[in-house]
Structure formats: structure tokens, C-alpha cells
């Protein structure tokens, strides 16, 4: 079968007017930056001094140097293209506007440069998550200042979203609103090759993903749902369930895209808003999951309809196989 590269795929989407040249350049540049991050992640402890932490980020999280480096790689790669007005990153408190000598463009890029970073030192898959919005315009047609308010758009306004998983293979998952497509990095030619066209999530599953150590803190609907899964074939579900928890959202979501499943990071009595970030974790993943025929809610409503209040706000996340997500939502009613 003829191998289609990411570039050929994006040229095709541009020729069918699904994306414009600026968005195509942005997506190609993000993918190229993910290749560079993949190379550094794969060096692991062989890379000088990358294991230990040097600084801490805006949330006071100990920042592994690879977090900082991944952020820098993505920012430097995307600064000069003339297609971005600004960035927002988990690693930066405020948005970073594109400044002279570079030209500004119509898009806003939001990134979690290295998701799952607590897994770096134990050689478990980590990844990069990104979301693309348009910079809003004022009534006289000029672009708004690309500061925090310009970013606070609901996830249903995303024009593209995707993630990379740096695992046994490096995969790049992408949606531009016409379904979800997966590409695998061919390390001989160093190109992303289309390997998972038109990904669809099965509506039913027998596999759930949740950090069960939080069980004593869960709200009743979540407790009920998990207890029923654990009751197995003799319980109300009439079938046995399996559990997975990688603690890298990119790895758990790629598994859900590949074979179905439900991924849950609910709010609880300790993490009252949940743990995952709305703008650069939940929204891109929700866009991708819905484009693949799945569902994504915070337990009370569709994640993509949430009006953000802050760049780093957290949200409860329940996403994956549609029938299971709908069941959990019904328990919340
Ligand atoms: P880190 O980036 O701090 O490792 O967090 C990863 C993450 O944001 C997401 O990728 C995982 O699904 C989730 O947190 C894991 O959380 P727990 O460590 O509480 O299981």
C-alpha cells in the first residue's frame, strides 16, 4: 500500500479547503517539534542532566528539565511562521505573544509540552498535547490582543487538536474536524506515516481507566459506576471489566482510540475541580474523542461546551466509548 506521509495528508486537506496554508504550516511545525522532543525523550538518562529538576512551573510542580526543554522546542519551532498570534502553555503562567521581528497570524496555540512528566524517570510513555484556536477579532475586524481573554474560548471553537505519544513507537494523532488520523514516526526516513486512518472508538467496552487510589474521595455516581464494573459478570453489568491506568493521559487516550475504553479523572473531595487542565488537556482530547465517535463530559455536561474562566483551570474528565460515558452521565443526573 502506498505510504502517505503527514505532509501529503495535510496537502490533501488543504487542497480540499479543509485547512489553509497557515494552519497546514502550524501542524507540520508542531509535528516536526514532536520529532525533536521524541529524540530527546528517547535519550533518557543518556542525555546530560535532564533527569533532575531545575525549576518549578507556575503551579509549583517540580519541573523536570525535559518539560522546560520540550516547551522551548515547541515555542522556538512555532515563533517565526507568521501564522500564530500567541502561545499558551502549561509551563507558562501567561500567554506568550509573538513579537517582532516575527509576524503575527490568526491562530492561537495551546500546549501541554510534556504530559505525564512524572513518568519520565521510570521509562513509561509520555507525550505532547496541543489545541489550536483562532484569535478573535474586534468589531472593526482587527485581531484582539492575544492575551488571556482571547484564549478563553469553549473547546467547540477549536480548529485542530492532537497529541504525540513518545512510547515504543512515536505516534502523532490529529484532527482538523474531519475525523481522527494517526501517524507513526518512521525512524529510517524520519517522517510521520499514516498508519491509523479514520480512527473510530467502539461505542461499548469492557475496560476502564481511573486512578483507583482516589476511590474513597469519589462522588457517588463515579463510585456506583466503578463498583458495577468491579462486580463483573455476576453484577448489574453482566460482564467482566479490565482496568488500565498509565498515568500519562496521552497513553491512556491512545489506547481508548485504538480499542475503546472509558478514561476517567473525576472531581473528588480533594481535587474538587478534578486534576486535568481544561484548555490544553481536556479540550483537545475531547475534540479528538468526539471526532472519533466517542463522548467527553465533566459528568454534568459536554466538555467542549464549557466556557473557560481561566487559562489553567482544571476540569473533571470522563471520556471514551460513547455508551459508557452516557451511562456515567446518567448516574450524575
Ligand atoms: P504529570 O504530567 O504531572 O505526570 O500528570 C499527568 C496527568 O496530567 C495526566 O497525564 C494523567 O492522566 C494524570 O495526570 C495522572 O494523575 P495521577 O498521577 O493522579 O494518576
Structural notes for this entry:
This protein has 333 residues and is of the alpha+beta class. The chain has two domains: 6-196, Fructose-1,6-Bisphosphatase, subunit A, domain 1 (Fructose-1,6-Bisphosphatase, Chain A, domain 1, 2-Layer Sandwich); 207-332, D-Maltodextrin-Binding Protein, domain 2. Helix content is 30%, strand content 24%. It has helices at 6-15, 21-43, 65-78, 148-151, 220-231, 249-259, 278-291, 322-332, and strands at residues 53-56, 62-64, 84-89, 96-97, 107-115, 126-134, 160-166, 170-175, 180-186, 191-196, 207-209, 242-243, 262-265, 276-277, 295-297, 314-315, 317-320. An eight-stranded mixed β-sheet has the order 4-3-5-6-7-8-9-10, with helices on both faces. Strand 3 and strand 4 (96-97) form a beta hairpin. 1,6-di-O-phosphono-alpha-D-fructofuranose binds at residues 115-118, 211, 247-249, 265, 275-276.
> Any low-confidence stretches, pLDDT <50, length ≥5?
none
Which CATH architecture of the largest domain is right? 2-Layer Sandwich
What count of structural domains? 2
Question: What hetero molecules are bound to the protein chains?
Answer: 1,6-di-O-phosphono-alpha-D-fructofuranose
Share of residues in helices: 25-40%
Strand order of the largest sheet: 4-3-5-6-7-8-9-10
- Beta-strand residue percentage: 15-25%
Mean pLDDT comes to 95
Tally of individual helices: 8
Query: How would a textbook summarize the main sheet?
Result: 8 strands, mixed
Gap between N and C termini: 48 Å
The structural class is alpha+beta
CATH superfamily of the largest domain: Fructose-1,6-Bisphosphatase, subunit A, domain 1
Classified by CATH, the class of the largest domain is Alpha Beta
Q: Could you please say which CATH topology of the largest domain applies here?
A: Fructose-1,6-Bisphosphatase, Chain A, domain 1
Instruction: State the shape.
Output: globular
What series of H and E elements makes up the topology?
Answer: HHEEHEEEEHEEEEEHEHEEHEEEH
Number of strands: 17
Amino acid at each position: 500500500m502506498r505510504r502517505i506521509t503527514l505532509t501529503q495528508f495535510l496537502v490533501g486537506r488543504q487542497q480540499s479547503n479543509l485547512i489553509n496554508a497557515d494552519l497546514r504550516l502550524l501542524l507540520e511545525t508542531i509535528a516536526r517539534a514532536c520529532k525533536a522532543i521524541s529524540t530527546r525523550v528517547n535519550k533518557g538518562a543518556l542525555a546530560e542532566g535532564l533527569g533532575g529538576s531545575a525549576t518549578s512551573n507556575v503551579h509549583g510542580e517540580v519541573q523536570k528539565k525535559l518539560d522546560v526543554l520540550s516547551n522551548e522546542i515547541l515555542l522556538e519551532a512555532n515563533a517565526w511562521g507568521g501564522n500564530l498570534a500567541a502561545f499558551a502553555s502549561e509551563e507558562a503562567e501567561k500567554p506568550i505573544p509573538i513579537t517582532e521581528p516575527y509576524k503575527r497570524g490568526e491562530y492561537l496555540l495551546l500546549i501541554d509540552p510534556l504530559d505525564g512528566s512524572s513518568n519520565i524517570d521510570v521509562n513509561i510513555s509520555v507525550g505532547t498535547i496541543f489545541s489550536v484556536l483562532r484569535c478573535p477579532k474586534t468589531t472593526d475586524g482587527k485581531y484582539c490582543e492575544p492575551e488571556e481573554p482571547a484564549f478563553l474560548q469553549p473547546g467547540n471553537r477549536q480548529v485542530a487538536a492532537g497529541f504525540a505519544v513518545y512510547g515504543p513507537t512515536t505516534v502523532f494523532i490529529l484532527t482538523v474536524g474531519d475525523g481522527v488520523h494517526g501517524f507513526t514516526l518512521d525512524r529510517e526516513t524520519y517522517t510521520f506515516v499514516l498508519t491509523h486512518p479514520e480512527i473510530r472508538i467502539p461505542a461499548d467496552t469492557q475496560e476502564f481507566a481511573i486512578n483507583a487510589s482516589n476511590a474513597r474521595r469519589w462522588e457517588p455516581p463515579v463510585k456506583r459506576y466503578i463498583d458495577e464494573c468491579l462486580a463483573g459478570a455476576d453484577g448489574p453489568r453482566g460482564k467482566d471489566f479490565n482496568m488500565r491506568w498509565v498515568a500519562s493521559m496521552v497513553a491512556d487516550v491512545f489506547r481508548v482510540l485504538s480499542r475503546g475504553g472509558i478514561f476517567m479523572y473525576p472531581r473528588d473531595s480533594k481535587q474538587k475541580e478534578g486534576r486535568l487542565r481544561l484548555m490544553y488537556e481536556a479540550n483537545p482530547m475531547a475534540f479528538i474523542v468526539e471526532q472519533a465517535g466517542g463522548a467527553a463530559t465533566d459528568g454534568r455536561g459536554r466538555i467542549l461546551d464549557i466556557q473557560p474562566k481561566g487559562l489553567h483551570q482544571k476540569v473533571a474528565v470522563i471520556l471514551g466509548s460513547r455508551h459508557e460515558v452516557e451511562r456515567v452521565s446518567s448516574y450524575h443526573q
